[in-house]
Amino acid sequence: MLHRCNILTNLLLLLFLCHCGITRIKVALAAEEELATNSDSALPSLQVEECVVDLNGQCQNTDTSQNDKTEVLETEFASEDDDADEEDDDADEDANENDDDVWIKGRAYQIGEYLKCPWNYETDESESSLVEIHTDGTWKKFNEIYHQVVDRERSSLPPQFEGSGFQVPVEIKYMKKIGRGVFAKESIPRGQLVWKSINTAEFIRPQDYRDFLRALPQNLACDVIIWAYTRMISREQKQTFKVCVDLDEGSFVNHSRNRLRANMELGIGRLLREDEDEEITWYGCDLEFYANRDIEAGEEIRANYDEFAELHGWGKMGL
Predict the structure, then answer these.
(1) What DSSP character marks residue 157?
(2) Which of 70, 142, 264, 301 shows its CA 20 to 30 Å from the CA of 183?
(3) pLDDT one-digit tens code per residue, 21-79
(4) What are residue 97's phi and psi, to 5 degrees?
(5) Where does the SET domain start and stop, copy by copy (predicted)?
(6) CATH number given to 97-316
(7) pLDDT, tens digit, for every residue of 9-30?
(8) Do the strands 179-184 and 170-175 form a parallel or antiparallel pair, or are they unpaired?
């Protein structure tokens, strides 16, 4: 009897242990399922959908998310291109404003810098305007453009270019050390009228001078900037100046820094005698130059610019 009770007790204990084990297994399985569920919700699906190919070899069921990303990138790049175009437009507007500034209130040297004018003979001769010897056709072009810019009332040029202001035979040559120059083709006696200003353009208004430069081709505008000088208008208007530029071969006469070496100088109807006491002041752009000594054939004709060019006039005119 006692033996049976022990057997029954053992069976009951075994059943209890089995029940506890099963419960633990269920709890463990439930916890594992919950972990798997949370993992699936936290991580993106790595499932790859099978591609269904159409007649063109393209997937009919391709995920459009990649295409959406591509469109976004293309939109971003297009936006960047638009920004770059806007920056270019702003730069162009700034350049146009600078152009307007130069041609409205620019000084002569600023216009020369804007035009990239060559100021010496070190540049390639094929690219430099300083070696060009102008023909009558070029002087006629100067004349025509001047009349287009300056109205008839203020014009100082004849209606058409009819010839140089030189009164003696001369030849224009280019030499590397001096650039373009004027040379006598025959002997010139002392006191002979050499050149007079019959093709000298005058600009009383500074804006007319700027407009004239703007209307010219770049090489001719650079020549004018080099040649031009300022003069007092009259004895009564000593603080008022005008721009003068000789639009013929007279502009090729080079400067002699040593006044004693200049072989032509200013005069009024004749060469003034050295012993004359009266001081003569010339006004305006109408000038005459006479040989101050005998000039030999082949000799270069030179003048002293200080006789007629009044440099402070540029500042007075805002040029």
Answers:
(1) S
(2) 142
(3) 444 434 344 444 544 444 444 434 434 444 554 545 555 554 444 444 445 445 554 55
(4) -65, -40
(5) 168-306
(6) 2.170.270.10
(7) 444 444 444 344 444 434 344 4
(8) antiparallel
